[in-house]
Amino acid sequence: MEYSPERKRSGLPREVWKWVQSLELSISPKNIRRDFSNGYLVAEIFSWYFPEDFSLHTYDKGASLSTKQSNWSQIKKVLVKHHISLMKESINGTIHCKPGAAEALVQEIYTLLTNRRIQSVQEEALDFTDQRYQERLPMVARATVSKAIKNNLRLSEELAEPNLNTNLRKIHNIIHRHVELRREERSQNPKRFNVKPTLGEQAIRLPPSHTHTPPPQGD
């Protein structure tokens, strides 16, 4: 298998990367998360399969939130006509450059258009947070709660969702994940966090005594 640093950086499986390259897109994707965010390349991919419905001159190559929303709105309308539905989480994650979202979206499109199956799309749970990345870091290098919020809630995401309560729920979920990760760290490394054992943990465990059965009474 030939080594391709571009494919390695893309985070895409080899067969998907080769498929993307075979389409000879107007923009050669170097940063999957950034290059697919505005939807233009997605429209261009679909134009190979449905040329009569995807007029690329109606799509903008800009990077503003309004441009992204306009492009993706057009894409979704055309896909409805062809009874194609992309995962909402993948689209939103791609728009807001969430970790792994664009990669998952490209693979989803690949399976839809080529009718080939990829395990990472169909069988793995979608998680567009930085949790897996944080888990691979040494504990001293992991994000604080404020950094976790910044990493997992993009400014564009807040601008796209004007409902304050919705954004507050997202922040609450990020904090909850962060607290759970810290709790797991404390349980795995009690000495580092100076966690003292509870009285129950300090108590000496004795083997259970056998129940004494009284001898039978004589007549």
TrEMBL record:
GO biological process: regulation of cytoskeleton organization
Annotated region described as Disordered, given as residue ranges: 182-219
Domain CH-like: 17-111
Subcellular locations according to the entry: Nucleus
Predominant location category: nucleus
Highest taxon in the source lineage: Eukaryota
The entry's keywords: Nucleus
Gene3D superfamilies listed in its UniProt record: Calponin-like domain (1.10.418.10)
GO cellular component: axoneme; nucleus
Sample GO molecular function, one term: microtubule binding
Keyword Nucleus on entry: yes
InterPro entries in alphabetical order: CH_2, CH_dom_sf, Spermatogenesis_Ciliary_MAP
PANTHER family per record: SPERMATOGENESIS-ASSOCIATED 4-RELATED, SPERMATOGENESIS-ASSOCIATED PROTEIN 4
Function per UniProt: May play a role in apoptosis regulation.
Protein name: Spermatogenesis-associated protein 4
